[in-house]
Write a structure and sequence with these properties.
The protein contains ten helices and 20 strands.
């Protein structure tokens, strides 16, 4: 095992407790996309033991992957076709209702299921827009347990977010229905302590990242090991297409991670670390391997930091010009997760 992600479950608990405190609401833990790359089964089991009542996933397939491991309810965010509900329904599943047409199709089910209605207040991706359709949806024979909306820009645009909040509150008020859960806040919208909202959906914040400094701790760190050390002579190149050619005798090391592991080709130019010392990537990042310039002290077996205290997700995302969500969720199944 020469590439591994350490998943710190104590830090996960720490972050969960922070959001419980700042939101003053029930925390729904988002474990979609393999728990943002952290491993949905182990993360879900841990959160379940911490008393989380609702886990959130993207699809019924993701729900099926964790349902035997937890006692918590599982809210499915995405569209679920009626045939899949008929075939795979589990009492812990809660489905998102996104249109009146879908609700009407659901009436054919003999089993009563639980629903949360999604209201489209500006995301324009999924959910009800017309109040008349929302009112009609409430007449379903199924149990409507909650209602929610999704912020478009809670990390960056307070004005837009507040407009969505007011729109959503107006809709909920006009519906005059006794919902068990009303939720809108995500990681960056969890600070809106409105008495109407009694739950928040926390995703990336659980794993240690937020634009706000609220004392979160990173849950994932990512490492590999040196598997080969050699010497380049003047004029020799490294990797595909001769993008790096040395002008002097140079030690290089090979690490067994590449873009198929989630180590993006754009990492070039952002040093990796061995024992807190930085070493540059040379040549192109390959599918399965990458090469770094080293000194004569580096040997096979040395541990290389790819995500950690010297090379944070925030630093990587800025260098790659992508959002941190992409960094986490790109860590592939080829990387072993180690839980502690």
């Amino acid at each position: 095992m020469n590439k591994f992600a350490h998943i710190n479950l104590d830090n996960l608990t720490h972050n969960l407790n922070i959001f419980k405190s700042v939101s003053k609401a029930e925390v729904f833990a988002v474990v979609k996309a393999n728990a943002y790359g952290h491993g949905d089964k182990e993360v879900s089991k841990h959160l379940d033991k911490q008393g989380v009542l609702v886990l959130c996933v993207s699809s019924i397939e993701e729900a099926l992957n964790i349902v035997e491991d937890v006692t918590a309810d599982i809210l499915i965010f995405g569209y679920t076709d009626i045939e899949s509900i008929e075939k795979y329904h589990h009492p812990q599943f809660i489905y998102t209702a996104g249109s009146l047409n879908w609700i009407n199709q659901l009436e054919s089910l003999s089993t009563q299921v639980r629903l949360h209605i999604e209201v489209n207040t500006g995301m324009n991706r999924f959910g009800f827009k017309k109040k008349v359709d929302l009112q009609s949806a409430l007449d379903t024979k199924h149990h409507i347990e909650g209602i929610y909306t999704h912020f478009t820009s809670s990390e960056s645009d307070e004005r837009v977010t507040q407009k969505q909040v007011e729109n959503f509150k107006s809709i909920v008020h006009d519906l005059d229905y006794n919902f068990k859960y009303v939720h809108a806040g995500n990681t960056h919208g969890a600070f809106k302590n409105d008495p109407l909202f009694n739950a928040v959906r926390i995703g990336i914040g659980l794993y240690g990242w937020s634009v706000k400094d609220i004392g979160l701790k990173p849950v994932m760190s990512l490492y590999t090991q040196v598997v080969h050390v050699d010497v380049l002579h003047e004029g020799e190149s490294v990797g595909y297409n001769q993008t790096y050619t040395t002008d002097k005798e140079t030690y290089f090391a090979t690490i067994p991670v590449g873009y198929a592991d989630g180590f993006d080709v754009r990492n070039h130019g952002l040093d990796v670390y061995i024992e807190n010392q930085s070493y540059p990537i040379i040549g192109k990042v390959c599918m399965d391997q990458s090469m770094i310039e080293v000194d004569g002290h580096i040997k096979v077996g040395d541990v290389v930091e790819l995500i950690g205290p010297n090379r944070t997700v925030g630093t990587i995302s800025k260098h790659l010009n992508v959002i941190p969500y992409i960094i986490y969720t790109s860590v592939s199944a080829r990387v072993k997760r180690l839980y502690k």
